[in-house]
């Protein structure tokens, strides 16, 4: 599986407008840790549950600045057009689960709100 590339032009549609949660890796083509994170994510995420995208900071510097990304790899988790989580650097299984748990928390809060009304 290849990560789908995102540019500043396609960001709004592919990331903010996505119907499923998005895990976006800010990377750099010469970053060995970025490649390791990609392989780890490929092995540990069910692609149907979440969209995995990549943006190269060398050609999309304005997006990196907008989201305060100054190190690679940086992972941002988006849901419903909003940033829900962030991880900088390499991650292990526990850190991945912690990052993705933000989606469960958001879903549960929405359920509680719906129950109240």
From TrEMBL:
Gene3D superfamilies: Glutaredoxin. GO terms for molecular function: protein-disulfide reductase activity. One of its GO terms (cellular component) is cytoplasm. Coiled coil: none annotated. Keywords: Redox-active center. InterPro entries: Thioredoxin-like_sf (IPR036249), Thioredoxin_domain (IPR013766). PROSITE patterns: THIOREDOXIN_2. Residues 1-105 form the Thioredoxin domain. Belongs to the thioredoxin family. PANTHER family: GEO12009P1. This is Thioredoxin 1.
């Amino acid at each position: 599986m290849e990560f789908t590339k995102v540019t500043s032009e396609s960001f709004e549609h592919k990331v903010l407008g996505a119907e499923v949660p998005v895990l976006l890796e800010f990377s750099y083509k010469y970053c060995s840790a970025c490649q390791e994170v990609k392989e780890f994510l490929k092995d540990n995420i069910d692609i149907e549950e979440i969209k995995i995208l990549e943006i190269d900071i060398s050609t999309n510097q304005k997006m990196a600045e907008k989201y305060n990304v100054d190190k690679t790899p940086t992972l941002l988790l988006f849901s419903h057009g909003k940033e829900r989580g962030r991880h900088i650097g390499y991650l292990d299984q526990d850190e991945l689960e912690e990052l993705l748990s933000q989606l469960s928390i958001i879903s549960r809060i929405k359920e509680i709100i719906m129950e109240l009304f």
